[in-house]
Amino acid sequence: MKNDLAKTLAKKYGTPLYVYDAERIRENYRRLHKAFSTRWPDFQIFYAVKSNSNPAVVQILLQEGAGCDCASENELKLAMRLRVPAEKILFSGNMLADADLKAGLESKALFNLDDTSLLPRLLKFGRPEVLSFRINPAIGKSNVHESDELAGAKAKFGIPWEKAEAAYALAKEKGLKRFGVHMMTGSCVTDPAYFAKISEKLLNCVGPIGKKLKIDFEFINIGGGFGIPYQPNEKPLDIEKTASLVVEIFKKKTKEFGLSEVKLFVEPGRYLVGDAGCLVGRVHAIKESYKKFVGTDVGMNILARPVLYGAYHGIRVVKCSNGTTDHGPRTTDLVETVTVTGQACENADAWAKDRKLPKLEVGDLIVVENAGAYGYVMSYPYNGRLRAAEVLLEKNQPKLIRKREAFEDWMSGTTLFQKG
Ligand SMILES: Cc1ncc(COP(=O)(O)O)c(C=O)c1O
After folding, report:
1. Which of 88, 185, 211, 221 is the most exposed place for a label (fewest CB within 10 A)?
2. Does residue 331 have a pLDDT over 60?
3. Measured in angstroms, how far is the CA atom of residue 185 from the centroid of ligand 1?
């Protein structure tokens, strides 16, 4: 985003402000879709709604042809409100409550169970048309943090691959007839070979199960996890190479196990929206303590990733102040090492530590890069610092797609101020 646009948007909508670029979301979708669909025609992208659930963002991806990967009853409601057909909704939650199971059945979405123990509970309420199990292939990876490794011995997700056969056997015994298979092993991975490796492991696991139990798997969902570069020297994921390696394995293994009609599904979030969003914040205070702190309205409550995972986000400085200040003459060439903080009463809120940045002054803007995924959705109103507004740019034309949270929104649902 150009500096002038950041200034205009900050003036019009205030800060902190999430800004998404519709064109970039479309480009990301098309690149991913082309890479796989030209190699494996029966291919479908299910957008992981959890990464950015603003309806205007989800709608862009639906227009492109995506389905929705939903993790909860409310995400299902969102997909249904956006009129996504049931066969294009995947319901794939974790530690589901009975209410989730019922909601999943009512939605008629493709049901993906994270554990065998959920099956008898689900069948008390009804029978899904198509069922998949989330398999933990005992390999996980993330470029960001070990808690983003979603498979392997430490992960709470999925059924250990050694127990997958028993899960499908039970489902068959209970009369279910149509099956798929799913895994989601890690988030933000930029190594193409990794996706081929996990696909091979999954296919080697379910191929023999299909043969033994006479199950014709209708789809194989290799999950999301396609990474984007956050650090300055990180390389983007080569999606053409990724698709080529994955499909090579698919061709070989589906032939070996007689699974040739199988659909290939993916459920990315970050890859589609991560670099299509940024977060505009304002500098409100500069403090010379044992080190220099730049206090902004972007804190852990507005963007949780740095504090949650030690995640790195690039910061661009947009100078707004002019003339001299208490800190000496302003020059855009001056670079300082500072720690950028938010306004929360937590020391952890010093979220960009010892960064070399152009000299910042009160009133300047910062643009936090790659904030389109796991940004707004993870924000919370700690210290009464309420959630940011969200704006969508369509060909550089801004549209407010969520207003800034106000005091009345914050209090809604509490009882003391209720009228009548
Ligand atoms: C089940 C599931 N699917 C898909 C995703 C999307 O992951 P990513 O944004 O890394 O593509 C996640 C993220 O945690 C997930 O848990």
Report:
1. 211
2. no
3. 9
